[in-house]
Amino acid sequence: QAQLVESGGGLVQPGGSLRLSCSASANIFSGNIMAWYRQAPGKQRVLLASITSAGSITYAGAVKGRFTISRDNAENTVYLQMNSLRPEDTAVYYCAAYSLFWYWGQGTQVTVSS
């Protein structure tokens, strides 16, 4: 059964950091592209970062230099380290895996506010 479970969201002050984790079932993690998206209220879901099984990484311009994606292939887990958080980073963050089509987690809320 394909499954993605995010964790690590919460409330953080501007300038703070959070680390999101996504545990995936092996059948959709192994050898596949993993990614993080976010969706703010009233806006479309947007791609933030992706990482291939070989470690090739891409970032959206809005998060480049502040967010870092990584994966632990032994643990079937992908991470998103988020630094220098801004109020505009407030959104529901989704983990995704591509295996013939996209699989999605349930999302985790990140709120950046003082």
What does the average pLDDT come to?
Answer: 95
Which structural category fits the helices and strands? mainly beta
Number of strands: 11
Helix-strand string: EEEHEEEEEEEE
Q: Which geometry do the CA atoms define?
A: globular
Kindly state the percentage of residues in helix.
Answer: under 10%
Question: Which parts are unreliable, with pLDDT below 50 for 5 consecutive residues or more?
Answer: none
How would you explain this protein's 3D organization?
Helix content is 4%, strand content 53%. It has one helix and eleven strands; from the N terminus they run E-E-E-H-E-E-E-E-E-E-E-E. The strands form two sheets. Strands 2, 4, 5, 6, 9, 10 and 11 form a seven-stranded mixed sheet that branches. Strands 1-3-8-7 form a four-stranded antiparallel sheet. A hairpin with a 6-residue loop joins strand 4 (33-39) and strand 5 (46-51).
Short account of what is shown:
The protein is mainly beta and 114 residues long.
Please describe the topology of this protein:
Blueprint: E1 4-7, E2 10-12, E3 18-24, H1 26-29, E4 33-39, E5 46-51, E6 57-59, E7 67-72, E8 77-82, E9 91-99, E10 101-104, E11 108-112
Parallel strand pairs: 2-11
Antiparallel strand pairs: 1-3, 3-8, 4-5, 4-9, 5-6, 7-8, 9-10, 9-11
